[in-house]
Amino acid sequence: MLNFKKIFFTAKLRTKPRYQWLIAVCTTVHILILNHCSALSGDHLNLLEKHQTLGINADLIQANVTSELLTCKEISMIQQGEVIGRGTTKEVFGGSYMGKEVAIKMVTSKVKDVKMCLNRRDYRIKEDCYEYANYKLMKEIAYGLQLNSDRLVKLLGYCVRGDTVSGSVRDQGVIAVVEVGKKLSKYRLTQIMWPQRLQVAKDLADLLVVLEHSPVGSVNIGDFKLNQFILIDGRLKVGDLDDMSTQEQSCLRSRDCSILGEDAGIRCVNSTCIGINAKANLLLATVELLEPLLQHPPEELGGRIDVLLRKLKNYEMNALDLQQSLTDLTEAYLLQKNKNKLLS
């Protein structure tokens, strides 16, 4: 299990301020290879030794790193387009590389966290205001490398070459390049036909299984909202990974381990809410996606969907149960549809 906070703050104690976030997370993802971390040289090459003292499993970290990812040189050749999204810590630009549409994620002075820091003048030098936002983008890159799943937006490439914030792919310090998708909204969900709705629901269940049983431990999505998800060729994916965490909520007693203010049957063991990540993902997936997605079902599915949603809200199912239930539901729907065709 990766403890990003421990890695970040341990590196922070050992390095110059302007390199703290860069060293901490470059160490985390072990990317002093394949031309993705060109900023670190000279004295900073000892990161390979430091990662041992930070307790990072290098074999696990390298597991999903491939030479197919775009390098810094290739990323600088992307034709950068207009802003297509803006969040708390980063902006997303459209772009084109060798005729293929891509999305470019980077920190700029226009994002909320940076603007608030600059307005407060809560810094020694202005670059300090970009440190946390860049750290979160690097954290997103780390999860993209390790959680190798079709249910997460695909990382096409990344570059780390310093802490410059220019807004351009040519010299921006930290850049992630991912595939392009359409953001989900309640309106878009209502426009999806039922066969695709069931497929999207199955994709969501697959995602929950991946997160619960990932190689880095049970992963909590964190900011679990509808607009964090995208559709690519009709398939559901998480489009934002920077709020993900493997850390289970801390507690003093079991009643501290509630979800949305309700008892979820989670025990506090050794000051940790054991299993809260998986249960929180499941409940929020139900509230944010499954309920609006599965509303107004065909008559033959109505009763079964009501039972499914009730069991989810009462914590009577886990992600694997949901996966199987949705498979059965889809088969029943297709069977009934084919039967209706034969009778018509």
From TrEMBL:
GO terms for biological process: skeletal system development. GO terms for molecular function: ATP binding; non-membrane spanning protein tyrosine kinase activity. Residues 305-332 form a coiled coil. Keywords: Coiled coil. InterPro entries: FAM69_kinase_dom (IPR022049), Kinase-like_dom_sf (IPR011009), PKDCC (IPR042983), Prot_kinase_dom (IPR000719). It comes from the Eukaryota. Gene3D superfamilies: Transferase(Phosphotransferase) domain 1. Pfam families: PIP49_C. One of its GO terms (cellular component) is extracellular region. Residues 78-344 form the Protein kinase domain. This is Protein kinase domain-containing protein. It comes from Strongylocentrotus purpuratus. The lineage of its organism: Eukaryota, Metazoa, Echinodermata, Eleutherozoa, Echinozoa.
